[in-house]
Every structure is written in structure tokens, then in C-alpha cells.
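Aim 2 progress update. The chain analyzed this quarter is reproduced below.
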Amino acid sequence: MAETKNADEAAKNTGKTVSAAQSEAGKPAAKTAEAAADAEVKTEKKAPARKTAAKKAPAKKAAAKKAAPKKEAAPKEEKTAVKEEAKETVIVQDEAAEKAKEAAVDAPKAEEVTITEIKEEPKKSMASKEEKTAAYNAFSTDTLLEMASELGLKKTADDLKALMKEDSDLAEIADELAKDAEKADDFTFEDDGYDIDILPVLVARIYDSIDFSLVNPKTLKDRINAALALELTGDALADTDVYNTLFDTVREVLMIAQQNNIHGVQQINDTVLADVPALVVKFMDVAYNVLKTWQYNDVKYYEGFIYSVLSQFEELHQSLGTRAMMDVADQLILHGDYGLGDANYRYIIRENAIKDMIYFRFASIYRDLDRDKARAIAHEALQWVDGRYDYYQAIVDILNS
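Predicted C-alpha cells:
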């Protein structure tokens, strides 16, 4: 009877637990679970673990499961707000990532700007040119040449003399030399004792050392007449001597003209008592033949020299300027510089109204190099040249060759 009574009490207690769990359905599941656990403890104390009680135990678990309240669905507005907040978080993260990328891309640019800003400017001298010139004049010519060498200028005294024999404009020569002084920006008068302004002083010093008295117009007459009598023989050494003799003679005439500011042909003829135009033509004829077997640099040197001679005398420039340009263009093509040679011919064609002789020479220089190109030039010439022109038939012959 005692066992039956105890079992009934346990059942009552269990029923109370279930009722209590159901009444607390609106509370959180954690509190319901705690209540169920307390009920189990009380039952275990009051009733020993018997078969009847053991059979009833599953009812507690079932009741506990029933008692667990369902999670209330969050209102739609709250869900929407949560989603929007999540989206905003993602957007913020994306924006932060984009900014990080932009910062990474812009970082080198900023660094470059900084480097540019801190780049040192070339050193500037505070001393006046007059002060520096006075100081430079105290140095010997050899010392001035050594200083110029430190500035990056690779010229000897003889090199500078040769330049001055071709061009008497000392300021222009100094400006050209300054372009070759690659290290000039590293020197200042205050720190090193000299700078780029040393070049005009050096040029003037070298010019003063040239003995122009060696060029005597009275004795030059005989040398000009002797040079006019020279002929090429086909022997390389002998032909070189002919070229050098003519070159030196023409250069002496040029020096006299520059020293006396002579620009007219008649005036220079009267000064040297000889036929200067004939001398220049003779020199050009010899140069055209000799330079074919010489180096490309010899052609470029001749180009600068002959232009200096012709520009000194206005009439020679008018009568021989186009021929000189074609001679140089031919030499450039013969030495493989087709681009520059062709460009020279194109310029000459544009600048001259009578084009038959120019086209003839342009096509002729390619006859032994590229026959197809020679014929193409001749074909082009017929757009401008017809039977009225002197070189028409010669151009047609090249086209049909």
C-alpha cells in the first residue's frame, strides 16, 4: 500500500509539473526546461526508482517537449530592417575595399610626386659673368682645356681651331660646345672655381692663338692656280692628296673672306687675284668622286664645310647650292643612308620649280643600286616633265631601261 501511495503522489507531482509547464508556455524555453528539471529532482526524492515510476518518466520528457514554446516569427518589418542593415554592412565593406585598392594604385603616384618635389635643381652661380671672366683669364690655355674636359667637353685645341676656321662666330661656337658639356650642371664657380661660363673664354683664347698672317692673299693666288691644275689619277693616295690640297686652299679663301667680312664673288676675286668660283667647283668635282670610297663621317664633314663656303658668298649659294645638296644626297645614298638621301632629294624637288634635272639625278643614283626604284622615280618625274624639258629623254631612257 505504501508503494501505491508513493506512486500516486509521484503521478500527482508529475501532473502538476506538466500543468506548470503548460501555463508557462509564453516564457522562454530556457525557463521551461529549468522547471522540468526541478520537477524531476523532486520526484526522485519522493519516489524510489521503481518500474512504475520508470514507465511514467517518458511522460515528463514528452511534457517538457510540448511545453517548449515555439519561437515567435519576427515581424516582417524587423526582418526587412535586418536585411537592409546587412546590405549596408556589405556595401560599406565593399566601399572600404575599393578605397583600399585606390589607395594602393595611387600610392606610387604620390611617391613619384614626392620624388619630383625633392629633386635637386641644377646649381646656380651667384657670381657675375664679369667676375668669372676676370678669374678665368688668369688661367693658362692648357688649364682652361682641362677644366672644359671636366665639364664633359671632349675637344682638343686643334679641334677648336678647326671649328673656328669654318665658323668665325665665336658666340655660336661657344653655345654649341656648351651642348656637349654633359657634366656642366655639376659645377659652380663658388664650389669648384669654374663652370659653364668658362667656354666663351676658352673659345676666345683659342681664336686669338690662330696665326691668320699665314694666309697671305698675295701668295694664295699661286696656290689657287696650282690647285685648279690638279687632276685625279685613280690612285687612292694621289687622289687623297688632290682632295686635301683643294680643301686647304678653299679653307684659306674662306678664312680671308670671314676675316674681312667679304660676301661678294667679285670682291673675293679681287682680294686673292684668282677665280674663286672655279676653285670651289673644282673642289666639289673632286670631292664627289673621292668621297664615294671614303667613310660616312667624311661625307658629313664635307657637307658642313661646303655649306659654310657657299653661305659665305651669296652668288655661289644661288648658283651652286642646289648642286651641293644633290651631291651630298648622292653620297648619303651611296653610303647606305637611303632615308636621309631620299629626304634631301624630296626637299630639293619641293623647293625648285624646274624639276627635270633633279629627277634625273635622283633616278640615276639608283640605276646601279635598285633598278625598280630608279624606274619608279622616273615614272613619277613624268607627272612634271614633258618633251619641253632638257632631261625629258634621259628620264624616259631610265624608265625604259
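DSSP finds 20 helices and no strands in the chain. The CA atoms of residues 333 and 341 lie 5 Å apart. These observations will guide the mutagenesis experiments scheduled for the next reporting period.
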